[in-house]
From TrEMBL, chain A:
UniProt KW keywords: Cell membrane, Membrane, Transmembrane, Transmembrane helix, Transport
Name of the featured protein: Amino acid ABC transporter permease
Superkingdom: Bacteria
Record flagged with keyword Cell membrane: yes
From TrEMBL, chain B:
Topology class, membrane: Multi-pass membrane protein
Primary location class: membrane
Protein name: Amino acid ABC transporter permease
Origin: domain of life: Bacteria
């Protein structure tokens, strides 16, 4: 056993880049997936609606940890090799897609029917209707909850520690095993997440208040 | 891909899985009851407590909501024993869940209390209603109705995220799955079945909550 020193501090802080990297992957992938899910949920085709609904139900109705386990422990059994990066990335992207998709579906459906009808009356086809009329308005409403959801994504990356991916939480575990100073170590780990998440929480709350004021006018 | 699915090992362990499921339900329900108690005190402190107490409650909420549950769990499980408090993984898991839910539920309950227009409370008093009647009919019931959906979905989120307590082996459903996995090596089958159990639990509870809403809270709003 050794005491907690400067190299340990550095090790944990440096692991933050993997937390940030994984969060970005999850968020970017989840943005694309979420858009597909949201469009699927409101699609005219029954098949698309059904598929999107099942996807959302499955990923919102089961623990993220088990989704991660299924990909990390399950797929190698099927003969598909996965390393922690891929497993964590795929699980987080799928999970984020489901949640963002549902948030955005709500935002899209909040656009008044008249706007849709007007777009149709103007003879706009599906792509133009969505791209030029519905989505620009919906994205304004969606901005605050999306920023708020980023906090959940960042926190969710901590689960990758359980499958051995060395991000902040896992780095904390490693240092704790070597130094046995859990109070310092896990306070530091919590502080790093807090520094990453709190500004986003504040920003989301501010945007929400501004929106509420704009709507009240 | 010519993998042979073998579920018999998993299904042979059904008493263990059942026990794990029961532990997960029990843990979630206990944590919810205790967490709601924390949240009621927290919401009172935030809406009408003295200023220093408001700061404390705010700090608690922000700290919990902006750090991962796993880290909170590690903190309670590893750091507190280092301070001299020895306790089981189960107790640490329960406390972490209570503390976590308490922060989210405080905000939900506060929003519920603040959703009652002051004028209605004043109107109740003007109608010569007793204080407890004002609380019961004008504040509690409408507030409960307003926060019911948020509170119940928070419960389901808590139940699903309780899978994380398996990281400290707190004898929940996911811990059972992890043990089975290391004995039988049928990871894919086990995690599929266990994910299915969580899914059914989430469905069952949301159905139950909807039923309760229909029976007890589904009266028309008159505003």
């Amino acid at each position: 056993m050794r005491t907690f020193g400067y190299p340990d501090l550095l090790f944990i802080i440096e692991a933050a880049r993997w937390t940030i990297g994984l969060s970005l992957i999850a968020f970017i992938g989840g943005t694309i997936g979420g858009l597909l899910v949201a469009l699927g949920r409101i699609a005219e085709s029954r098949l698309a609606r059904g598929a999107a609904t099942v996807f959302v139900q499955v990923f919102q109705g089961t623990p993220l940890l088990l989704q991660l386990f299924l990909i990390f422990f399950g797929f190698p059994v099927l003969g598909i090799d996965v390393n922690p990066w891929v497993a964590a990335g795929v699980a987080l992207i799928l999970n984020t897609s489901a949640f963002l998709g549902e948030i955005w579906r709500g935002c899209i459906q909040a656009i008044p029917r008249g706007q849709w009808e007007a777009a149709e009356a103007l003879g706009l086809h599906y792509v133009a209707k969505m791209r030029d009329v519905v989505l620009p308005q919906a994205s304004k409403i969606a901005l605050a909850p999306t920023v708020g959801y980023m906090v959940q994504v960042i926190k969710g990356t901590s689960l990758a520690a359980i499958i051995g991916f060395t991000e902040v939480t896992r780095a904390g575990q490693i240092v704790n095993n070597a130094t046995f100073q859990p109070l310092i170590v896990f306070s530091l780990v919590a502080a790093i997440y807090f520094v990453l998440c709190w500004p986003l929480s504040l920003l989301a709350a501010r945007m929400e208040r501004r929106q509420a004021r704009a709507l009240a006018r | 891909m010519n993998y042979q699915f073998q579920f018999q090992d998993v299904f042979a362990a059904w008493p263990l899985l059942l026990q794990g499921t029961w532990m997960t339900i029990q843990l979630s329900l206990t944590a919810t009851v205790l967490g709601l108690a924390v949240a009621i005190v927290g919401a009172w402190a935030k809406t009408s407590g003295p200023q220093p107490l408001r700061w404390v409650v705010n700090a608690y909420i922000e700290l919990i909501r902006n750090t991962p549950f796993l880290v909170q769990l590690f903190f309670f499980f590893f750091a507190l024993p280092a301070l001299g408090l020895r306790w089981s993984a189960h107790a640490a898991a329960l406390v972490a869940m209570v503390v976590n839910l308490g922060a989210y539920a405080t905000e939900i309950i506060r929003a519920g209390i603040e959703s009652i227009p002051r004028g209605q409370i004043e109107a109740g008093l003007a109608l010569n209603m007793k204080r407890h009647q004002v609380f019961r009919f004008i504040i509690l019931k409408p507030a409960l109705k307003a926060i019911y959906p948020a509170l119940t979905s928070q419960f389901i989120l808590l139940m699903l995220s309780s899978a994380v307590v398996s990281a400290i082996s707190a004898d929940d459903l996911t811990s059972v799955a992890a043990n089975l996995q290391s004995q039988t090596f049928r990871s894919f089958e086990i995690y599929i079945v266990v994910a299915g159990i969580y899914f059914l639990l989430a469905l069952a509870f949301s159905g139950l909550f909807r039923l309760v809403y229909q029976l007890a809270l589904n009266y028309p709003d008159r505003r």
